[in-house]
Amino acid sequence: MSTSRLVALAFVLVFAIVNVVATPLPEPVNIRLGHALAQRDPAPFEPIPAYMKRDGLYLENGKREPADIPEETPTQSPNGQLELYGRAPQNNVIPAEIAVTAPQGVVKPY
């Protein structure tokens, strides 16, 4: 045999051996390996701190508090107080398809 055939055969054998080793173990072997884990008592788990911070966010009935502002509404917080943007709705009457310009902060069609 030539060396290229030997190398190819070696790769095929290594591939087959790796696949045999990687196969799952039969059920009785898994039970014996996990026997020590089944014998011990698990320690009680505490909630993750990120979830503990959310306790006051929802009322008992599962609804949001009435003072909450929806996520879709743009807000600002200039002095630490949360407030809506002061933009009047009548200023935004130009459709999105029309090109606009804003000299001195006033939106006008281009």
List its traits.
mainly alpha; two-stranded antiparallel sheet; 4 helices; elongated
Strand order of the largest sheet: 1-2
Any idea what the radius of gyration is?
33 Å
Main beta sheet? 2 strands, antiparallel
Give the low-pLDDT segments.
none
As a percent range, the share of helical residues equals 25-40%
Q: Strand pairing plus helix content: what structural class?
A: mainly alpha
Taken in chain order, the helices and strands follow as HHHHEEEE
Shape: elongated
* Number of strand elements: 4
Mean pLDDT: 73
Determine the strand fraction and express it as a percent band.
Answer: 5-15%
Keywords: Signal
Region (Disordered): 61-84
Signal peptide: 1-22
Quick rundown:
The protein is mainly alpha-helical and 110 residues long.
Please give a structural write-up.
The protein has 110 residues and is mainly α. The protein has a domain at 1-38. The protein contains four helices and four strands. The protein has a two-stranded antiparallel ribbon with strand order 1-2. A two-stranded antiparallel ribbon has the order 3-4. A hairpin with a 6-residue loop joins β3 (100-101) and β4 (108-109). The radius of gyration is 33 Å and the shape is elongated. It starts with a helix and ends with a strand. Residues 61-84 are annotated as: Disordered.
